[in-house]
Structures are given as C-alpha cells and as structure tokens.
Amino acid sequence: MYNVIDLFAGVGGLSYGFSKLPEFNIIAANEIEKDISIAYTLNHPNVKMMNCDINDLTKEKLIDVLEGQTIDLVVGGPPCQSYSTLGKRQMDERANLFMQYKRVLEILKPRAFVFENVVGLLSMDKGRLFIKIQEEFAELGYILKYKLLDAVDYGVPQHRERVILVGFKDNNPFVFPPKTHGEEPGLKPFVKLREAIGDLPVLKSGEASTDYIPNPDSDFLKFVCRDGELTEHAAPKNGAHLIRIMETLKDGESKDDLPEDIRPKSGYGNTYAKLWWDKPSTTITRNFACPSSSRCIHPRDSRAMSIREGARLQSFPDDYIFYGADGMKRLEIGNAVPPLLSVAIANQMLIAMNEE
Fold it and tell me: What angle do CA 91, 36, 161 make, to 5 degrees?
C-alpha cells in the first residue's frame, strides 16, 4: 500500500481518484480555508485534515500528524489565481507557493509527486516561472515529466486544461493516461451537456427541485450514481432584464448575438453567453452561476446554472458533499480537479508506483 498526502487539497477532487484504489492510502491533507476543509473531511472522513496555512506545516507538525508513517506520494497544486489567464497574473506571494510544496517534499522525501495547475502556468512570467518550478523540484533529485491534459478527454463533460507535472526519484516510469474520449476512431464520444445534466428537472429563475427525471441512460449518469433525493438543484434568482437576455439567446449564442436594445454594453465575448446542449461545457469557474462573468447560461432552460449542474460539469458524483454558503460551494466546485481526471491520473500512477 502506498501512503499519500494531498497539499492544497480543496474539496478533494484530486484525492478522489486515489481514494478509489485500495492500493493508495491517503493519510493526510492540507487546506487553508475552513469551510473547504470541512467539505473535504465530509467526503474523506478517514483522512487527517490539517486546516492551516501550508507555511505552518513544520517538520515537527508533519511528524506528529503522520505518526511515524512514511509518505510515498505527494499530490496537489497551489491556488491558481496568480497563474490564470483570466486574472491579473501577478508574481505575488501565491505565485511562489510552489516553494512551500518543495519544502514539504524535502521534509517527507516521497518517491513521487503529482503537481497540477492551470494552463496559464506555462506562460507565466514569459515561461520562466514553470522553468523555475522544474529546476527547484529537480534540485531534490526528481526526474520530471509534464503534459497538458484536457479533462474532456477522460469523460468529463467540460473542456478544462490542466498542467500535470509528475516527479519520480531515480527513474520516472510514469506514462500519462491515454485519452478515453474524443473524435478519433476507437474513442468514446465526448460527453455532452445533454448527457450530463439532461436528467435534471427543468427550472426557471429562482425555482428548485428535489426530483430526478426518470430513466437516465448514459454512462456518465451511471457514474454520478443518482440515488435518493436530488440535492443542490436550485436556479439563482435573477432580475427581469437578465431573464429576458437569457431567454432571447439561442443555443451557444453570446451577447454579441443579442438585439441592440437589450445587449449589455460591457463584458467579454464569453459573458452573457449560452452553453451548447450538444457539446461539452467550456471551462467553468467559481462564477458558473453568474452570466455576466462567464459562459454559463443553461441552453435548455435559459437560466443560470444550479450548484448540482456545476458539480456535474466537474464530474462530481451526486452524493459528493459541498459545505458552506452557496458562494463557498461554487468556489469548492469551480476550483476543483475533476474527479474523472483524477481517476485517470491515479490509475496511471499505480502502474508507475508498482514498477521497481
């Protein structure tokens, strides 16, 4: 059995895949936000949660938490706001949190690690930051491999690119997971919005429901395990003008397709925009319920997305628990590694760890 620790764990999306394989034992996780750490623990009750700033993870604290157990694998990725192409992209303190990740690696000396982050990391500081990260990790004796993976290629109903950097001591046998979904021959088709959320009842702005539409028939819905009462399916309440905008838009249209008399005067090209019913979603953020911030208007119901729908687009099973106010739950979902992507990574990591 391989012992694992998850840094910057969030709600546990990256932990999910490793938790489903009996060969991995997630001993501890670190998350600074109180509500998010509670959500992690609700879903991973046997993992010791260290709810603190990673700067406070001293050697003594780690030894105390691990109770003499060695760690074989470290996983996790620092907060991505500094690297995101949607943000200010500043070389601030958060942009250098990878050094705290390195410090923990130096203390624990695991055989391997998985470091994940947004695609913007590759271009941050004209590419110099990612080179620096690789140099720092290589300094500890790790042989590195990295690749840009898109979650949609692994059955997630959303285009979501992530940089995955894998390090192994001595020899790096890790092979990145082959695509399971796509347009190439031999692959399953991409999971469309219709397949991912079409079984959820029709809602109008401000409405909620706890009943599933009967008889779903997609592999994705079998994965999310609809069982019992539907939760977190409530449409945000919007004003009459925004409702008119959402109802005027057709499938996949944006604000530039609106009549001039109701067209918003501000916003980017992907704001006030509908998703496509028969395509995967674009990348969702914590603002997936705010049409003025991102493309997130429901293509069938012409409204903002519910928390359950956001969770589905990330591939969280329906029994996964989110904690806190609605805004906090959306943050937990929007910042997460999609569970189905973590499953693909964990399966490949197990193969690599088993190699002598």
Answer: 55
Establish if 194 belongs to a structural domain. Answer: no
The amino acid at residue 314 is Q
What DSSP state is assigned to residue 324?
Answer: S
Residue-wise pLDDT tens digits, 124-137: 888 888 899 999 99
Give the range of the structural domain holding residue 84, as residue numbers without chain letter.
2-181+337-353
Q: In the block, which residue shows the tokens 């694998």?
A: 73
Ranges of the chain whose pLDDT falls below 50: 82-85, 87, 89, 91-92
User: End-to-end distance of the chain based on CA atoms, in angstroms?
Assistant: 14
Which candidate in 80, 225, 290, 296 is catalytic?
A: 80
DSSP 192: P
In the chain, the number of structural domains is 1
Q: Is residue 144 part of a domain?
A: yes
Active site residue 80: yes
Residue in 343, 196, 204, 200 with CA at minimum distance from that of residue 280: 196
Q: Can you give the CATH number for the domain in which 50 is found?
A: 3.40.50.150
Number of Cβ within 10 Å of residue 91's Cβ equals: 12
* Domain-embedded: residue 317: no
Which residue is it, tokens 């009967």? Answer: 214
pLDDT in tens, 86-124: 545 454 455 678 999 999 999 999 999 999 998 888 888
Residue 126 lies in a domain: yes
Burial (CB count <10 Å: 0-12, 13-18, 19+), residue 118: buried
Return the residue matching tokens 């959306």. 330
Q: Tell me the three state secondary structure of residue 301.
A: coil
Read off φ and ψ for residue 26, nearest 5 degrees. Answer: -80, 110
- Separation of alpha carbons 276 and 296, rounded Å: 10
For 22-31, b/e burial (b = at least 16 CB within 10 A) is eebbbbbbbb
Alpha carbons 289 and 338: distance in angstroms, whole number: 18
Task: Please say whether the beta carbons of 118 and 163 come within 8 A.
Answer: yes
Contact by Cβ (8 Å): 310, 290:
no
